[in-house]
Amino acid sequence: MATERAYFAVGLTGGIGSGKSLVAGQLELAGAAVVDADRLAHQVTAPAGAAIASIRARFGAAMIAPDGALDRAAMRSLAFSDAAAKRELEAIVHPLVRQAALDQARSKTESGAPYVVFAIPLLIESGDWLRRVDRVLLVDCPAHEQVRRVMHRSALAAAQVQSIIAQQASRSRRLAAAQDVLFNGGSLNLVSARVARLHATYLALATGSAVRGAR
Predict the structure, then answer these.
(1) Which of 41, 43, 133, 182 has its Cα between 20 and 30 A from that of 94?
(2) Average pLDDT of adjacent 10-residue blocks, the chain of 215 residues
(3) 136: number of Cβ within 10 Å
(4) Running DSSP on this structure, what letter comes out for residue 50?
(5) Strands 116-119 and 9-13
């Protein structure tokens, strides 16, 4: 159940390479307020970012790049080999991202956005985020297509991509948690039409939510 708030919220998620950014971008163009957790995570781990001092204190200077930002390649290597280190990094970064996301959502809705889309890659894995949204939108696509897309955009080997996928929530777990599923395995026009239908649904739900909240 979603926590008390003054806006209607959709949690957008999906596996790596599923097309979350594409769908988020189209919802934003339609008028939704999109809050991107990945973008906020980059901000708090940028040079002088809010997480840098704690990361340096916990993991040492070896995890900080020459420009003062988190060394993502070094941290990725450590996190994949050390589950405890991964949890400790998340304990530093996630609360900062969550607060920044909530602040951004409040600001955007106060400026007139009809509803909020929280783009959260690890939404299913996080019980905290699940209770902060009214609906979960899953962007889904075949596993082989995920691997192909990520290899193409990030120059990672297939084994590396498959390792990332293996550490994320399973497709069946995501499907079980989602109220809405957008299959991103067809043409861009087809995806756009599906996004437009979802946007119309969310507008109607947001209006109903606002009416109920005013009573």
Answers:
(1) 182
(2) 74 90 95 96 96 97 96 90 91 95 95 95 84 94 84 84 81 91 86 95 85 38
(3) 22
(4) T
(5) parallel
H/E stretch holding 11:
strand 9-13
Task: Give CA–CA dist 55/17, Å, rounded.
Answer: 27
Is the Cα dihedral 78, 59, 90, 68 positive or negative? negative
Nearest to 200, CA basis, from 36, 30, 26, 33: 30
- The Cα–Cα gap between 177 and 4 comes to 20
Q: Which residues contact 211 (CB under 8 A, 6 or more apart)?
A: none
Whether residue 100 contacts residue 44, with contact meaning beta carbons closer than 8 Å, is answered with yes
Residue type, 205: L
Let me know how long the chain is.
215
Give the pLDDT score at 80: 81
User: Can you tell me whether residue 3 is helix, strand or coil?
Assistant: coil
